[in-house]
Specification:
Elements lengths: L9 H12 L7 H43 L4 H8 L10 H28 L16 H12 L1 H25 L11
Helix pairs in contact: 5-6
């Protein structure tokens, strides 16, 4: 298509908009829209009511589940039994106290046995020395032979190396600001 060069002025545009605004809806369209709105009004309250009921039941179920979980925590009954002190004030008959003490001792024994069983499965071999000694590598064997064969010479070299290390450390400390220097150098 070849582009045409039409220039519109405001009067033509206003005439077109007025014609567009005066257009009538298609036949039967108004009736279809009104019927659809009436249908939605009939069904929407029932749907909204059902949805609210489902949400409420789920919320109540979640709260009840959390409450049951917190109330019946494994081991919580034994912890409470072990925390209650039994003092003979003369108000509780001695046989009842004996039964309560026996029940408390049984609970403690059960917990102790459970802890011991867990400890048996998690026991690892204990080493006499930590870290465990490893075989010497080639350089360590060479150093051991050198020290064994030339002990006086090895001692002089070790002292010289230690002196050099101390001098390097002193130079490094001197280069640091005063607030960062270690307490040992002062």
């Amino acid at each position: 298509m070849k582009p045409t060069n039409h220039s519109f002025d405001d009067t033509q545009l206003e005439a077109m908009l007025k014609k567009y605004g005066e257009a009538e809806p298609r036949v039967g369209m108004e009736g279809r829209v009104l019927a659809r709105l009436a249908e939605e009004r009939e069904h929407s309250p029932a749907y909204a009511w059902w949805w609210r009921l489902v949400v409420a039941v789920l919320a109540i179920g979640a709260v009840a589940g959390i409450a049951v979980f917190v109330a019946i925590k494994p081991g919580s009954r034994h912890e409470i039994v072990n925390r209650i002190p039994y003092v003979n004030t003369g108000q509780i008959p001695t046989p009842i106290l004996a039964a309560l003490a026996a029940k408390q001792n049984a609970a403690r024994t059960t917990i102790l046995h459970q802890a011991q069983r867990k400890a048996q499965f998690s026991v690892e071999p204990r080493l006499e020395q930590f870290p465990a000694p490893a075989p010497l590598n080639e350089q360590e064997v060479m150093l051991m032979r050198y020290v064994r064969d030339r002990r006086p010479e090895a001692v002089i070299v070790a002292k010289a190396r230690e002196e050099i290390r101390k001098q390097d450390l002193a130079r490094f400390e001197a280069a640091l600001p005063l607030d960062q220097r270690s307490q040992d150098s002062e």
